[in-house]
Amino acid sequence: MADSEPLIGEALALDLVNTRPAGAHGRVDLLATPQQLSGWLLLERDRLQGEVQNTAPTRSDLAPLHTVRAHTEAAVRALLDRSEPPVRALRGLTEAQRAAPPVRELDWDGTAVTAIPRRNGPLGTRLAALLAEAAAEMLSTPAIDRLKECEADDCVMVFLTAHPRRRWCSPTRCGNRTRVARYYRRHNQAEPTRT
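The structure assignment produced for this chain is given below.
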């Protein structure tokens, strides 16, 4: 997996935060264009409750998502530091949810009544509300005590660990890279230089 590919599989809110990995020249935005957002939505489609079906993102859809991502990351980083999340971040996430609250749309599927949550408004506003809701759920659950940052030197990814010994965001991304670097350091230090 390349560092330019989104890391997915964590809580949805953390997958959003992790769309800003460290790059060679600072943080990289993997949701900088509508095309990148479209690719990320495709990766996350099973968790987005049908909010993105048959809708192509536009440049105006990016700003609400970037705002929710920034608020979520501010709260996550504060919790990693064992400090109080910024009030501005928590209020921002609440406001994003209020911008497009879910309404249970009732329908008949031929055998039973179904109730599917739907949101109104532009795609960016609906997605921001859904992602802010995912952040609110994650931030308020006891599992947030298992929040960790990847221990690789050049990584800023965050995750909720299910195992206390987990150290890296991904065993294939940072785990292998760290183990290989450690191996080379050990073997290069162990061999005397020849003159």
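Interim note for the steering committee: The CA atoms of residues 78 and 85 lie 5 Å apart. The radius of gyration is 20 Å.
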